[in-house]
Amino acid sequence: MNLMFAGHLDRAYLLGGKPDRFRPPLTRAGSPHADAFDAYRSFFHRSAMAVALSSALVRHLDRSPPGETIVSHRGEDGRLYDSILRAELEDDALRLAKISVAAEAFSDATAEMMRLRAPGDPHRANLIHHVEGILFNVLHAWQARATLVLADCDRQVLVELLNCVIANGIALPYGIPDLRKMQSSDSRTSGVIANLEPGDYNDLNAMLEDSAIRTYQHRLSRLSEGRTVNVGILLRAALEEARRSSSRIREAPADITLTSARVRTLDTVDLDAVKIDPFKWANRKPSKPKMHIIVLSSSRSLG
């Protein structure tokens, strides 16, 4: 299983390469960045635990080289019906982000979460760039057949974006996963995992060498099977077994909720009417893949 993080989880995972990046400071009294640090520490905990318990390859992709094309649609006879420059689709992520922000797609609470940045993050808060980053990784997760992993607050970004698209008849450049019915309260698709609270990549690498973690990891290998697995039962059994074999896991808080589902994507053909289409996206013949999505939430975090 390949993982592709998006939004805050993607940024937190990359920041975790700095030693001790997410270890609590000795004193936080009066710190103006305490809330942002706590939220981003939780984002790193979630992303690192996802890696530790999946033994997954984490994909980080750069912009595509000029001239590279992708097949967006094939007919039943296998003939190519539509080929698009990959770089054009990547540019479309920014175009759709600008349209959605201009259309006031996002609630105040969601916009506030998108502006959140860890102390020392070199990237300034920007709604358009945050939405673009999520849409860019949606595209590449689809292309790479990777599992897209989001924090719950970034799941909400995609929910509100699709609600705006449907309400305003905004054409889509490619399929966007429909997460509107994906709820962490459904025991068939959700459950908890232990949080060993890593502070950086060194902690993550040490976890990967732990035999109890490898056993825990092995039990979770069926998550990518989607609808054939009761996620709640799988996660509960895996955690119980891991706690029997490791005092460290037994003492770790089980405060990360993992929701796993294979969801359909929505495209322009799913709209009742197209009213906004400045880039002629409605002329495309869309592919309609399902995507494996994992959402990680925590009761101890802002998002």
Key phrases:
303 residues; alpha/beta; seven-stranded mixed β-sheet; two-stranded antiparallel sheet; 9 strands; globular
The percent range for strand residues is 15-25%
User: Over all CA atoms, what is the radius of gyration?
Assistant: 20 Å
Query: If helices are DSSP runs of H or I spanning 4 or more residues, what is the number of helices?
Result: 10
Q: Quick one: overall form?
A: globular
Mean pLDDT: 87
Q: Give the count of structural domains.
A: 1
- Work out the oligomeric state of the chains in this entry: single chain
Poorly predicted tracts of residues: none
Can you offer a commentary on this structure?
With 303 residues, this protein is of the alpha/beta class. It has one domain. Helix content is 41%, strand content 16%. It has 10 helices and 9 strands. The strands form 2 sheets. Strands 1, 2, 5, 6, 7, 8 and 9 form a 7-stranded mixed sheet that branches. The model has no long low-confidence stretch (mean pLDDT 87).
Write the SSE topology.
Blueprint: E1 2-5, H1 7-15, H2 34-52, E2 57-58, E3 69-74, E4 80-85, H3 86-102, H4 108-114, H5 127-144, E5 147-151, H6 152-168, E6 176-177, E7 190-193, H7 201-208, H8 211-219, H9 231-245, H10 247-251, E8 256-266, E9 290-298
